[in-house]
Write a structure and sequence with these properties.
Elements: E1 6-11, E2 14-19, H1 30-45, E3 51-56, H2 67-76, H3 78-81, E4 114-118, E5 121-123, H4 125-131, E6 135-139, E7 143-145, H5 159-167, H6 169-178, E8 182-183, H7 184-190, E9 195-197, H8 202-216, H9 219-231, H10 237-252, H11 255-265
Parallel strand pairs: 2-3, 3-4, 4-6, 5-7, 6-9
Antiparallel strand pairs: 1-2, 7-8
Helix pairs in contact: 5-6
Length: 275
């Protein structure tokens, strides 16, 4: 696929997917939806990629759905303008739960860590996309808002499931009902983001964090753990323990387990293969 609404780059084992409509604060379009879907699956299938960053070009992360798209929906109706990305096979080791096969909920099927580098306004649908990342690092100048209630809309695309799990039900109700703006520091206190960084340090610090993952841990372990923690949201404690027991036995037979022991005993840098 040729990308027009995003940029895609791979360096040092990290794929960077950049929403690229800076003049529109990277407002989300159907083309962007399809391209992000393609780029994430491309990164998942690339053995040279072990981690992914999702960010925005210019001064915004994503200001939500493009107003042209919303106008289209208003004029023609949601069913006539909706566009699901073409179906893609679940990458190896990614979650195959049907819950993760919806329009945006496929992010957990990508068996590599995805960090959202939130560099500016993150609103509405942009916030939904950010919440499907495994973690979020924010520039100090970033701003977050659900925005839906201000447009006469509702908690869409699973944010009613995601947000309470991340920050608690009363806090989720507050952000959804009021559609108020939340700065980066408050977002960190609420648990929306894990780190707040000076604007100029956001991407270097995000890449430094991911380089430690790329260079220091087993990609097989990360893929399995990502599947475990997302699928555990639908499991009892006992079920999660049983899954863990099975996966632990599987890991004992892996090349990465052998390498994990060997590099520790030999006091050298690891050479994990993901197998």
């Amino acid at each position: 696929m040729t990308y027009e609404a995003i940029l895609y780059d791979v360096a040092d084992g990290i794929a960077t997917v950049t929403l690229n409509r800076p003049d529109k604060l990277n407002a989300w379009t159907r083309a962007m939806q399809a391209e992000v879907h393609d780029a994430m699956h491309r990164a998942a299938a690339d053995g040279a990629v072990r981690a992914i960053v999702l960010t925005g070009a210019g001064r915004g992360f994503c200001a939500g759905a493009d107003m042209g798209l919303l106008s289209d929906i208003q004029e023609k109706g949601a069913q006539r303008v909706s566009a699901e990305p073409a179906a893609r096979a679940v990458p190896p080791q990614g979650s195959a739960l049907p819950d993760f096969g919806k329009t945006y909920s496929w992010f957990p099927t990508i068996p590599k860590p995805i960090v959202g580098a939130i560099n500016g306004p993150c609103a509405g649908l942009g916030l939904v996309i950010a919440l499907y990342c495994d973690m979020r690092f924010a520039a100090r100048g970033a701003m977050f808002t659900t925005a839906f209630a201000q447009r006469g809309l509702i908690a869409e695309h699973g944010i009613s499931w995601l947000l309470p799990r991340l920050i608690g039900l009363p806090q989720a109700a507050d952000l959804l009902y009021s559609a108020r703006k939340v700065g980066a520091d408050e977002a960190q206190r609420l648990g929306l983001v894990q780190r707040v960084l000076p604007d100029a340090e956001l991407m270097p610090a995000t890449r430094e964090y991911l380089r430690a993952i790329v260079e220091g841990v087993s990609p097989r372990s990360v893929a399995v753990m990502k599947r475990q923690i997302w699928e555990a949201q639908f499991q009892t404690l006992g079920e999660a323990i049983e899954v863990g027991n099975v996966e632990m036995l599987e890991s004992f037979g892996s090349d990465d387990f052998k390498e994990g022991v060997a590099h520790y005993l030999e006091k050298r840098a690891p050479r994990f293969t993901g197998r």
